[in-house]
UniProtKB/TrEMBL annotation:
Keyword Plastid in annotation: yes
Taxonomic classification: Eukaryota, Viridiplantae, Streptophyta, Embryophyta, Tracheophyta
GO annotation, biological process: translation
Residue ranges of domain S1 motif in the record: 95-165, 183-247, 260-328
Region (Disordered): 384-409
Identification of the protein by name: Small ribosomal subunit protein bS1c
A single GO molecular function term of this UniProt record: mRNA binding
Keyword terms: Chloroplast, Plastid, Repeat, Ribonucleoprotein, Ribosomal protein, RNA-binding, Transit peptide
């Protein structure tokens, strides 16, 4: 282009305004700010891609090594592994007892480590000889080490099925045999009934108590969920026969009741002629005439069913299982059982001791009277009322009992 043409072009351009000329030119920064995040993102993406490629190469190398030479660089061979398993293997036959440690529980049972090739499982119904809702109710928690019995195998995963109930069942029978040999009284809870008797649970086992072996006249419905004192009549594990007797247990308890002893009981029922008192599983009769020295017209004004009180044993018929009781003999003063029964119970042992002393005095006098008429027996009564041989300080003809006062009631 010639110089004349350039000048002509400059003349044709529009003049710049003053506002545009007053502001300095500044390049736009928007493009630069947008470009920086894009560059950073590309860098991160490249780093992740490199990491993925590196992992991929490692995986491919490991896969190839496992495929071609899986045992290369490993000193523990497959033969060594099988040998170790055989070393710790055990007899997994049904009925075999094994030691195991519980390591996990759930609502249906527990997983048990028995150091075997396969796992072992303890179902809920095999966890205890008693009926439970969860294995933890029987104390089965992770970390518990116990002896189990193998009772089966789950074909789906070759796991063994264990039982604690079987072990406890055998121990319960052994315990019952021991208690029978020692003639011990045990407590049994009545859980069922049939035409011939009731079913009681003892040591986790169900035993049968015939109605003929129950001392009370209670019905089966009245006995349900109650505990009765029982003795073993027959313990036969092979026949699964466990026969119990409440009558034998009650007779044993009654044999320990001494005349004049004070026992605590509860009122079971009221009758016009007296009150029946339960004294540790034995029903005794507190006759209306033995409640107080004062006349009792209405027993319900003195006693109510459920009341707890102290009574004294007057007599008991072991053959018939009848026990006669008294609170009258425990009154410090006549009528206290009606006016202040609390005082009667507080002084019960003291008043019973006085009663026993009177009985002993009466028996001593009876023996002395016998000796007065039989001096040839060579026996006499000392000052303590004890029968013994004649001594030098006593006359040969016996004691003079003419001045002995009669025993008071």
């Amino acid at each position: 282009m010639s110089l004349a043409q350039q000048l002509t072009a400059l003349r044709s351009c529009s003049p710049l305004s003053s506002s545009r000329l007053s502001k300095p030119f500044a390049p736009r920064q928007t493009h630069k700010r947008t470009l920086l995040p894009i560059v950073a993102s590309v860098a991160i993406s490249n780093a992740q891609t490199k990491e993925r490629l590196k992992l991929k190469e490692l995986f491919e190398e490991a896969y190839e090594r496992c495929r071609t030479a899986p045992m290369e660089g490993v000193s523990f061979t497959v033969e060594d592994f099988n040998s170790a398993l055989d070393k710790y293997d055990f007899d997994s036959e049904i009925g075999t007892k094994v030691k195991g440690t519980v390591f996990c529980t759930d609502s249906n049972g527990a997983l048990v480590d028995i150091t075997a090739k396969s796992s072992a499982y303890l179902p809920l119904q095999e966890a205890c000889v008693h009926r439970i809702k969860h294995v933890e109710d029987a104390g089965i928690v992770p970390g518990l080490r116990e002896e189990f019995v193998i009772i089966g195998e789950n074909e789906a995963d070759d796991s063994l099925i264990l039982s604690l109930r079987t072990v406890q069942y055998d121990l319960a029978w052994e315990r019952c045999r021991q208690l029978q040999a020692e003639d011990v009284v045990v407590k049994g809870k009545i859980v069922g009934a049939n035409k011939g008797g009731v079913v009681a649970v003892v040591e986790g086992l169900r035993g049968f108590v015939p109605f003929s072996q129950i001392s009370s006249k209670s019905t089966a419905e009245e006995l349900l969920e109650k505990e009765l004192p029982l003795k073993f009549v027959e313990v036969d594990e092979e026949q699964s026969r466990l026969i119990l007797s409440n009558r034998k247990a009650m007779a044993d308890s009654q044999a320990q009741l001494g005349i004049g002893s004070v026992v605590t009981g509860s009122v079971q029922s009221l009758k016009p002629y007296g009150a029946f008192i339960d004294i540790g599983g034995i029903n005794g009769l507190l006759h209306v005439s033995q409640i107080s020295h004062d006349r009792v017209a209405d027993i319900s004004t003195v006693l109510q069913p459920g009341d707890t009180l102290k009574v004294m044993i007057l007599s008991h018929d072991r053959e018939r299982g009848r026990v006669s009781l008294s609170t009258k003999k425990l009154e410090p003063t006549p009528g206290d059982m009606i006016r202040n029964p609390k005082l009667v119970f507080e002084k019960a042992e003291e008043m019973a001791q006085t009663f026993r002393q009177r009985i002993a005095q009466a028996e001593a006098m009876a023996r002395a009277d016998m000796l007065r008429f039989q001096p040839e027996s060579g026996l006499t009564l000392n000052s303590d009322g004890i029968l013994g041989p004649l001594t030098s300080d006593l006359p040969a003809e016996g004691l003079d009992l003419s001045e002995v006062p009669p025993a008071e009631e």
